[in-house]
Amino acid sequence: MPRRMMRIVNGYLVLLIAAPLAMVGCDAPQAQFSENLIFMKLQEEQNESFSAPQQQAIADSLQAMFGTPDEPFFVPIESLSDLLDVRHLGQAAGPVSSDEYGNGQGLFRQHCVHCHGVTGNGRGPTAAFLNPYPRDFSMGKFKFTSTPVGVKPTTEDLRRILMNGVAGTSMPSFALLSEGEIEALIDYVKYLSIRGEVERQLMIQSNDFDFQTEDGAIDEEGVASFTASDFLVGEVLTDVVDSWLMAEGMATAVPERPEKFDRFSESFDAAELAASVDRGRKLYFSNEAQCVKCHGPSQLGDGQTNDYDDWTKEFFDWKQSDNESFAPMMKAYLALGGLKPRNILPRNLRKGVYRGGRRPVDLYWRIHNGIDGSGMPESNKAALKEDDLWDLVNYVLELPYEDASRPGNELSVNTKEVR
Amino acid sequence: MPRRFVLVLRWGFLRVLVLSEAGVPTDSASTASTPSPTGFATLRGSFTLEGDPPAPVVLTVDKDANVCAPGDKPVEDKDFVFDATSQGIANVVIFVENCPEEWVHESAKPGNEAEVIFDQEKCVFLTRMVVMQTSQKLRVLNSDPVGHNLKVASFNQTIPSGGFAIYQPLKEMRAPEEMACSIHPWMKAWMLTRDNGYFAVSKEDGSFELPNLPAGVKLDFRVWHERSKAVTGATIDGEEQKWSKGRMSHTLEPDQDFNLGVIKLNSSLFN
């Protein structure tokens, strides 16, 4: 570490840090993106310790590709205009201010940073007090999307979250912001997420490069091949950007909900809806849908409650929690700013609070696609068809009104006799 | 000519040059004479343990115990499969990392579409280490009387008892990724997808075989095990090998049947 500090002090970075500071005064520390030390620790556990030049090369590369929280930057790649509007980054980033017409600057720091943090790693100052914790964008995973598991959200998905908030969590609605401000924030979230994912990729892939010669000197050739834009932009960045561009066309198309189920439609048929709800209830307990496994026989979300989400599991192997190496790892994780792990809980379906939205189409997406990063799987495509999914949606929408003492189904898969 | 790419970025009033051109002098080395294979060869060997095997991990089975832990017997994790007779370590993965498609033998070409079967019984994934080509499909079965789901990479689907699901990977993986079941979170397996077919998983006795490898070119092999992740070293014929990041390199002769023999892996790797 001291060697690295020396390098920074000796290097040109001192100019970068000192010059703007001189302009704003000593009491306003310049906002910095923080290094993903937790992910680095994870890489070190699996490979070897990062050398000082390796860490420096990653930091330099990130700064070159993304700039700083006050002056964000995006490498002018060909597909950039399909991805985001760079002007939005300037509007969303930087310190909070407004011009004479009231146009806001620094939107992210005004509205988002307390929870999501300057780096977008979900570890802002209030994060530890919230349940659930704010989203860490850097993994490139988002829960409430219209796209299948493993695919990025569409722009519309991000807009919906910003406009509606996430019911049942601390994420509020930002519907009072102007359309332009929402657009700016959407693009800034993409930017932070891409930056975070690129950082992870650089940490992983830096394991394939040599940064030090055998006598401990800096391997200039190795550093140069790592920081070459053919690699940084041509391979790493393009890969992440492509995954965002690809998502736009991958929203799961939801067939029109049959009008007979719609209370506000002229063709509404109460008997049909009741029959569908009944079928949905049977499916809930069935082997084909298996909702009961996690959401529980009384639909209170008390089935499987011992799992953790992907953001937590990335760092820990919970099966090793009795192993002697586990406690020191946990200590290291918390010392690096990690938030105390909590179990991920299946939703209590009797509350009528749906994080990803309460429209039938939102529930259809949840059931059809699952929820990325959580334990919620997508429906089995061989066993459940479109009509079955609508039955499930109808049942879930009806659940908050169902008598809680209504006995469960005949025999749930949990209690089936075993040979 | 190598592509030259210099990017000048602006921060405030400062101009800083950070991204450099590809720094390696490429003219003579890579562009002039791209090596091409002179034939095909086989690499084999056998991973064995040096020292004591790690203590088995007892799993916390707190769901569907009648199926997953019949008779209330403690269930041990199969994260280290070790055969005391041969000292062999199973489920060590070895794969070729650098192999342009034109080097690949007919039998290992990308595009293989054979389905890979992946089943589960008593809440145990029957294959602990799944390696397949990206073009292959994984047919996930469920022989348990209870439902499961399978979560891996870009896939998370429920598998009804007696049902199935099909997973088509999106892309090649650089290292194995975890397979899990959210309903029974103690269940675990690993998956690696590679574009070409140059991969092997060690058998019960620790042995592996990689046939039809391109000869006459330097191949980088990666060695991986779920407890150690990258296998960073071994002892072969009494000689210590340091495999930085789990990587070893060999250049094989045409038609050679190269046997690395007994590859001893120290137990400290697996603790």
Write a brief structural summary.
The complex is a heterodimer of chains A (419) and B (271). Chain A contains 18 helices and 2 strands. Chain A is mostly helical and 419 residues long.
Question: What attributes characterize this protein structure?
Answer:
heterodimer; A: about 425 residues; mainly alpha; Cytochrome Bc1 Complex, Chain D, domain 2; 2 domains; two-stranded antiparallel sheet; 18 helices; about 0% strand; globular; disordered C terminus; B: about 270 residues; mainly beta; Immunoglobulin-like; five-stranded mixed β-sheet; five-stranded antiparallel β-sheet; 2 helices; 24 strands; about 5% helix; disordered N terminus
Topology of this structure?
The complex is a heterodimer of chains A (419) and B (271).
Chain A: H1 2-10, H2 13-24, H3 37-46, H4 52-66, H5 80-83, H6 86-92, E1 97-98, E2 104-105, H7 107-111, H8 113-116, H9 155-164, H10 179-205, H11 220-227, H12 229-247, H13 270-284, H14 291-295, H15 310-313, H16 326-335, H17 360-369, H18 386-398
Antiparallel strand pairs in A: 1-2
Chain B: E1 8-11, E2 14-17, H1 26-31, E3 39-50, H2 65-68, E4 82-83, E5 88-89, E6 93-96, E7 116-118, E8 120-121, E9 124-125, E10 129-133, E11 138-141, E12 148-152, E13 155-159, E14 164-167, E15 177-180, E16 188-194, E17 199-201, E18 207-215, E19 218-225, E20 229-230, E21 233-236, E22 239-242, E23 247-251, E24 257-266
Parallel strand pairs in B: 3-24, 7-11, 10-16
Antiparallel strand pairs in B: 1-2, 3-18, 4-5, 6-17, 6-19, 8-9, 11-14, 12-13, 15-16, 19-20, 19-23, 21-22, 21-24
